Amino acid sequence: MTGPVAPRIEADDEDQEVPLASLEQEPMVNGPIVASCLGLGATLNNLSKWLFAVLFGITVLWKHDAQALWASIGSVLNSLLSHILKRLLNQRRPVPTSRSDPGMPSSHAQSIFYIVTYTIITVIESFGKNGLTAALGGLLYALSCYFSWLRISQKLHTTHQVLVGATIGLGFSHFWFWLWNAIMFKAFESLFWVHFIVVLAAAVLCTGFLVYVLKYWILY
């Protein structure tokens, strides 16, 4: 004896009867898969700040030059800019209970695109423009887009908030290194007081950022 059957579905040549039991099992099969994907997305989202912080740290330690100091200052200023814009725009997140602070722009996307742009600029300056650096740049930007999209999939930001954050991070990074190459590099090399201020600012801001990481990333 067979179980109950679903209504007949027309096929090309003949009608087929589909057991209801097989239809009822589909959500049970898909449920763990969906839950696993959501759990993986949440884990990667939580790890994203560490992954890109490590990428930035590796790049800075690899170069360990005046431009790396300038990049460190820019990274902290980029984060401060994001927090200032959040307060000024005061746009809530898609799910207000997810975070208490405003969501416009996405500080994650802004920091990610700043870091990746700096890394790509550094790699191109070191190895030139070629197929390998182009492939690496494309891969890094693809990863940036994916990890930024996770902020949307986890309901932490709207699409507009992420796009604005990514655009600001990308633009600020290009501006910051244009400023270095156009003005600050020569001043850093020729004027002691500029040299002193850049080194001091990098030390103070990076120390402040490390305190922030310890307080809000590790101990929070």
UniProtKB/TrEMBL annotation:
Keyword Lipoprotein: no
BP terms from Gene Ontology: lipid biosynthetic process; protein N-linked glycosylation
InterPro entries given in the database record: PAP2/HPO, PAP2/HPO_sf
Domain Phosphatidic acid phosphatase type 2/haloperoxidase: 87-181
Molecular function terms, GO-annotated: dolichyldiphosphatase activity
Entry's transmembrane regions: 130-150, 162-180, 192-214
Keywords for the protein's UniProt record, in alphabetical order: Hydrolase, Membrane, Transmembrane, Transmembrane helix
GO terms for cellular component: endoplasmic reticulum membrane
PANTHER family, per the entry: LIPID PHOSPHATE PHOSPHATASE EPSILON 1, CHLOROPLASTIC, PALMITOYL-PROTEIN THIOESTERASE/DOLICHYLDIPHOSPHATASE 1
Name of the molecule in the record: Phosphatidic acid phosphatase type 2/haloperoxidase domain-containing protein
